[in-house]
Amino acid sequence: MSIDAALAQVDWAPTNSAPTTDGSRYATHSGVLDVLGFEFRVYRLNTGEAVIHADDMERFFAEGRA
Q1: Which residue from 38, 31, 35 is spatially nearest to 10, judged by alpha carbons?
Q2: CA–CA separation, 14 vs 64, rounded Å?
Q3: 52 near 30, Cβ under 8 Å?
Q4: What is the chain's Cα-based Rg?
Q5: Strands (DSSP E) found in 1-66
Q6: What is the rounded CA–CA span in Å between residue 40 and residue 59?
Q7: Terminus-to-terminus CA distance in the chain, angstroms?
Q8: Residue 8 dihedral angles phi and psi, to the nearest 5°
Q9: What is the percent of the chain with per-residue pLDDT over 70, rounded to a whole number?
Q10: Per the confidence metrics, is the pTM higher than 0.85?
């Protein structure tokens, strides 16, 4: 499964974040991406990009799952 297909399965919830005044990116939606039982917090930005919470990535690699 591609990352795009996996992200399409995420139950996205609005974050109710207000747009920034300086034009920087911000999360409009958040969700949880399950990869083989490991849960990653993910965010959809106002640009349409999806990002994974850095702490979850660090924990994933620290636990030797990669």
Answers
A1: 31
A2: 32
A3: no
A4: 13
A5: 13-14, 27-35, 38-45, 50-52
A6: 10
A7: 16
A8: -65, -20
A9: 97
A10: yes
- Amino acid, single-letter form, for residue 65: R
Helix (H, G, I), strand (E, B) or coil at 61: helix
Q: State pLDDT tens for residues 3-28.
A: 899 999 999 999 999 898 999 999 99
Q: Which residue in 33, 40, 32, 30 sits closest to 63, CA to CA?
A: 40
Owner of token pair 């990002």: 51
**Cα-based angle 15, 17, 22 (whole degrees, multiple of 5):** 145
Q: Sheet with 13-14: list strands edge to edge.
A: 13-14, 27-35, 38-45, 50-52
In the prediction, which pLDDT does 66 show? 61
3-state secondary structure of 60: helix
**Amino acid type, 15:** T
